Amino acid sequence: MDKCYFSCLNYKNEDRKKNMIEKFKKLNIPCEMYENIDSSVDERIIKRDLCDGTKKAWSFTYGHLDMINKFYHTDKLYGIFCENDIFIHNSLPLQLNTIINEIEELNLDILLLGYLINYDISNNLNISNKSNLNFKYYSYPNDLWGAQMYLITRKYAKFLLDMYYYNYADKTINDKSLVPFSADWIITKNGNRALIYPMLACEDGLNRSGHYSQDLFHSSCHSFSYTSEFI
Q1: What is the rounded distance in angstroms from the CA atom of residue 142 to the CA atom of residue 117?
Q2: Beta strands in the chain (DSSP E)
Q3: Domain boundaries, the chain
Q4: Does residue 30 have a cis bond before it (omega within 30 degrees)?
Q5: What is the pLDDT of residue 39?
Q6: pLDDT per residue over 59-110, tens digit each?
Q7: Are 90 and 25 in contact (CB under 8 A)?
Q8: Nearest to 186 by CA among 221, 150, 213
């Protein structure tokens, strides 16, 4: 636990903020709540001619990068970042040192602890056949989504900040060959990456985007992954 910096992204939702603070207190995990930027006032967004959907994506992504930047300027070796609409597995504090030891052995840059999935992936490619590992770590394709909770190294944090924090978003406006400035692309789809399965953070499934199929997908992911061991 001493090696990790925890931060949770929140945006103008006091109920969710209080809920996440209580969860981390129960787990005895010190976590900094980060109030996400307002796309209507943040200068990185307001001076650009962007549609509402892109403004939202940029706000969300800059929020993640802001948290990563704060982590990088601490003395912690690992950063763990999450969103404000998740349940956390009650074993996380007990398992964290083991997970860190194993990602060091596997030389991972980023490990997804929570993500969106509604099917069994045990037949996917396990990135290691080492018998001494306590958890299963799987590679994942570009069409697996979600940054509900993830762990990154300091080295990977520097890569993300150098590559995406300052000028990248503006470049995507005119260069459509670049991947979108979205956490689901630039943060979770780079580096030596893997996910842990079963997951240790599960979305609450209460997505209310107004898009029926998207909301149904989020709900099905929650139903598939949630157990009584999540708080």
Answers
A1: 13
A2: 4-10, 31-35, 78-83, 86-88, 110-114, 136-138, 149-153, 193-197, 201-203
A3: 4-225
A4: no
A5: 86
A6: 999 999 999 999 999 999 999 999 999 999 999 999 999 999 999 999 999 9
A7: no
A8: 150
Measuring CA to CA, which residue among 129, 127, 133 is closest to residue 99? 133
Nearest one of 183, 172, 171 to 36, comparing CA atoms:
183
Our measurement of the distance from residue 36's CA atom to the centroid of its chain's CA atoms, rounded to an integer in Å, reads: 14
Threshold 0.85, pTM exceeds: yes
- Cβ atoms of 217 and 118 closer than 8 Å: yes
For 4-225, CATH number out of 3.30.980, 1.10.287, 2.20.140, 3.90.550 equals 3.90.550
pLDDT digit string (tens) for 23-36?
999 999 999 999 99
Query: What values do phi and psi take at 93, rounded to 5?
Result: -60, -35
Phi then psi dihedrals of residue 128, to 5 deg: -145, 140
Count of beta carbons in the 10 Å neighbourhood of residue 39: 21
d(C-alpha 120, C-alpha 103), whole Å: 22
pLDDT for position 123: 72
pLDDT of residue 208: 67
Token reading at 128: 């290691």
Decide if 48 contacts 173 (C-beta within 8 A).
yes
